[in-house]
Specification:
40% helix, 2 domains, 18 helices, alpha/beta
């Protein structure tokens, strides 16, 4: 059986075809795009049509590569960037561009939630999470307060992966995993939190799609696409989920002890849990996963976003940047970089900006600054990992996915900074792979021939042993001190009103 996985990200969409029986990826395609330019600071938006066009392009390329075997595709799964607000009218057409996870324009609306529900403590009691600007709920309140005309016409609220499922099936629905990142769901009960909904507007509950198990099918692929792509009549679409939920599956993170580190535009660290993990500080997001369990997660907003800015600034290829960074000693000659280019989520600093600290005439060179940028983003992830340890979640190894996982320099730095072994996967596109595996699992369940997700993952998710790196003890000690310096610097700048 063949399965199609689609991962719709912030910078590109990737699609792959997986032979689930042989555990082999037969085709892979990618289509890049950007966000809407010229918006005010803090606003990050995309036209949902961009996702559809990119999905059609990448799926078409994959189908072209496998030729007549396309009729063997039985299931399709979608992964997509979390939290985005897709506002639809009565005809299920977007009212406006989608506000993305990295859009921090709803800071004032988060404060309104804090005032109403008793701040972080009160919100965690209600929904298991604080209210952050990246989440969907404050964006929805922002829409009501800033674009009342659009809010009046608003009929349906979806997330990016739900919108793609609507395109694929014609059905409007939402599953527990992605829904848990909206700020509208009580993650403990997996039910909408009515006080939150009513605070935004009494009409909001009717705007939300049916809420369902992540293990259910979203429906059959609609006939127009089935005929266009030449797929079989029983090709179905799984519920899918957010990119972090699918990356967890695509990296085999469905058991305790395994932890996934995603090195993409943003960076996330997530683990598997049989029970909700509610962080009283709110720094670990209490999300649901795509298997009807839970996915405690921390997020750093600026990872490859920062390194890509650096590459553009110095006009370097990726390999050249890695080579230069590797030659610079740990610590970058005393430079400490705070990579808050688009604000930050962990710690919650939505209005922050980036900082180079410790520049001298000796270290103010491209190579030293490049090393500082890379160290800065990895230390940002280490901040989240430190909080995981504080709540009792300690990994045995880190499984890396996303673009940064392809770099030996990144992998070694993650191991050194974290103090844990790090390894990449043979298929580095963990979210697309997870979407395909999840689709296969759903298909078998729907057809009355259930299979173990663990067995599917063991057959398909393969560690690339050549990429495995062990932490270097001398660097582990050094970076532990660097992290404390980074935390102290951030705290002092924030207290002084500079972040």
């Amino acid at each position: 059986m063949l399965c199609l996985g689609i991962d719709s990200g912030t910078q590109s969409t990737k699609a792959l075809v997986l032979d689930i029986d042989k555990g082999k990826v037969l085709a892979l395609a990618q289509s890049a795009y950007g966000t809407i330019e010229g918006l005010p600071a803090g606003h990050v938006e995309q036209d949902p049509a961009t996702w559809i066009n990119a999905a059609e392009t990448t799926v078409g390329e994959c189908l072209e590569k496998i030729g007549d075997r396309r009729k063997e595709i039985k299931a399709i799964g979608v992964s997509a960037q979390q939290h985005g607000l897709v506002a639809l009218d009565q005809a299920n057409e977007p009212l406006r561009p989608a506000k993305l996870w990295s859009d921090v324009s709803a800071v004032e609306q988060c404060e309104e939630f804090n005032q109403e529900f008793g701040g972080t403590e009160g919100l965690i009691e209600k929904i298991g999470n604080p209210m952050l600007p990246g989440y969907t709920a404050p964006k929805l309140l922002w829409l009501k307060e800033n674009e009342p005309g659009n809010f009046q016409r608003l009929t349906s609220v979806l997330l990016p992966h739900d919108y793609l499922n609507l395109w694929l099936t014609g059905e409007r629905q939402m599953e527990f995993g992605d829904a848990s990142g909206t700020g509208l769901l009580d993650v403990r009960s997996r039910k909408w939190c009515k006080p939150i909904l009513e605070f935004i507007d009494p009409k909001v509950e009717a705007m939300l799609p049916p809420l369902r198990s992540s293990k259910r099918s979203a429906g059959l692929l609609r006939s127009t696409l089935r005929e266009k792509w030449g797929l079989s009549e029983d090709a179905l679409v799984s519920a899918g989920s957010g990119d972090n939920m699918m990356s967890a599956i695509g990296t085999g993170n469905i058991r305790t002890g395994v932890m996934t580190v995603s090195l993409g535009t943003s960076g996330t660290i997530c683990a598997f849990s049989e029970e909700p993990v509610i962080d009283p500080k709110g720094e670990i997001a209490a999300f649901c996963d795509a298997t009807d369990h839970w996915l405690p997660l921390t997020c750093a907003m600026n990872v490859t976003l920062a390194t890509e800015q650096l590459r553009k600034l110095f006009d370097w290829e990726i390999a050249a940047m890695d080579e230069r960074v590797e030659k610079v000693p740990a610590g970058a000659g005393g430079i400490l970089f705070l990579p808050y280019l688009q604000g930050e989520r962990t710690p919650n600093l939505p209005k922050a900006s980036g900082v180079f600290h410790g520049l001298t005439t000796e270290n103010m060179t491209r190579d030293f600054m490049a090393r500082a940028v890379l160290e800065g983003v990895v230390l940002g992830l280490a901040y989240g990992l430190r909080r995981f340890k504080e709540v009792g979640i300690v990994p045995t190894e880190l499984r890396l996915t996303g673009g940064g996982s392809k770099s030996r320099v990144w992998r070694q730095m993650v191991a050194d900074v974290s103090g844990f072994p790090a390894v990449a996967l043979r298929v580095t596109e963990g979210a697309a792979l997870g979407a395909a595996i999840h689709a296969a699992w759903t298909y078998c369940e729907v057809k009355g021939k259930p299979v173990s997700l663990e067995d599917l993952i063991d057959d398909v998710v393969v560690l690339d042993k050549k990429t495995r790196v062990e932490p270097r003890k001398e660097n582990v000690t050094f970076y532990r001190e660097q992290l404390l310096r980074r935390i102290d610097l951030t705290k002092k700048l924030k207290t002084g009103g500079y972040l």
